[in-house]
Design brief:
14 strands, Rossmann fold, alpha/beta, globular, five-stranded parallel β-sheet, Dihydrodipicolinate Reductase, domain 2
Length: 386
């Protein structure tokens, strides 16, 4: 059956009781009526998976004790029953092994960020995906906001001119207290190097900053000089990082990230200053884009307006004045994934550069950032090449 005649079937690994991001993925994947969840291994604990499956009204036979069992069993089902792709929403340490298991039996992948536990795993993931020819999406969801996509068009078209300075920050107070000692799962794995890898805040929010900066500007970070801090006792990973950036095109940048910034909630902000103009976008107020041109009044662009780019219009769902936010931006990533998978099913696969979502190469880029930032920090904040 042609893919456009049915919803795509999604499986999920992770996202059981006590998780956060798994529930988000389940909501956003189904928002545009393109996808349905039909199977999962939601936890390392079979009982957790069973309860989660019941709450999601899934067939108990499609709720698996292990992801290995899920991959093998789903691959043996008839083509009109098996999952089309799997969404991986586990801690970093297991991303590679899970993706490998499903890629090897022919399933497309959606993976939460950062892509892997280590740089070596990320490099191996790129090779696996390339050899498989399958779709791999990484959920840097902020790239799905309409005004972020319009900002990208402004810079990629050359309208703004050469980039001179970029400021990107992501400030939270999520780890101000030792939640990991108070039973919160979300904090426990994030501060544990055995689950997160060598980067704490660097991996959790820093990778979003680098991805957003490079997505909008099209100008990659060439060098980085970083300084990291850990303030709470007994923590091993970074909680706060400041870095200077040198862009390939000659521009300079400043990155500031923290999960111990008192009073901050989810303060992702991007400012870009170029020779012909500048922009400011903030995730906590995502329906507005500030546009500056020298000698002219400042403009505030709003979503769902006819003056925006086609890419912004394509990621807009409702009329002006009705706020769209985190979930809708996330859902736009899944819309792109659905299109790519349908094209693959129908024998007309898209080239990676045509994908409307972050790819395995963006995942590799994020891991390179983490490792280079840590390298700089461990060498008295020396400049290192990305």
């Amino acid at each position: 059956m042609e893919s456009w005649k049915r919803k795509l079937r999604m499986g999920m690994v992770g996202g059981g009781q006590g998780a956060f991001i798994g529930g988000v993925h389940r909501i956003v994947a189904t928002l545009d009526q393109q996808i349905e969840l039909v199977a999962g291994c939601f936890s390392k604990t079979p009982e957790n998976t069973r309860i989660t499956g019941q709450q999601l009204y899934l067939d108990p036979d499609r709720c698996y004790d292990t992801y290995q069992e899920m991959a093998i069993t789903e691959a043996k089902l008839p083509e009109d029953e098996r999952i089309d792709f799997v969404s991986i929403v586990t801690p970093n340490v297991s991303h590679f092994a899970i993706a490998k298991a499903f890629l090897e039996v022919g399933f497309h992948i959606v993976c939460d960020k950062p892509m892997a536990y280590s740089l070596n795993e990320a490099e191996a993931m790129v090779k696996l995906v390339g050899e498989s020819g399958l779709v791999f999406a990484l959920t840097h969801n902020y790239t799905g906001h309409p005004l972020v996509r319009h900002a990208r068009q402004l810079f990629h078209s050359g309208e703004m001119g050469k980039i001179r300075k970029v400021l990107v920050e992501y400030l939270q107070d999520f780890l101000m207290v030792p939640h990991e000692k108070l039973g919160q799962k979300q904090a426990a794995w994030r501060v544990d190097p055995k689950q997160s890898g060598i980067g704490g805040t660097l991996g959790d929010v820093g990778t979003h900053c680098i991805n957003l900066l490079e997505y909008v500007t099209g100008d990659p970070v060439a060098e980085i000089c970083a300084d990291k801090s850990t303030f709470l006792p007994d923590r091993q990973l970074d909680e706060d990082v400041n870095a200077l950036l040198r862009l390939k095109g000659g521009g300079k940048g400043i990155l500031s990230i923290s999960q111990v910034a008192t009073g901050e909630e989810n303060g992702l902000t991007l400012r870009i200053y170029a020779e012909k103009g500048a922009i400011k976008w903030a995730h906590e107020n995502p329906n507005y884009l500030e546009l500056y041109r020298y000698g002219e009044p400042r403009q505030t662009l709003t979503r769902a307006q006819g003056y925006l780019s086609e890419s912004a219009a394509d990621s807009t769902r409702i009329p002006p004045g009705h706020p769209e936010g985190y979930l809708e931006g996330f859902a736009t990533i899944y819309v792109g994934v659905a299109e790519a998978i349908r094209r693959h099913i129908d024998g007309d696969p898209m080239k990676t550069e045509e994908y409307g979502f972050p790819t395995v190469y963006d995942g590799l880029r994020g891991m390179q950032f983490i490792y280079k930032a840590v390298e700089s920090c461990n060498n008295d904040s020396a400049w290192v090449t990305m």
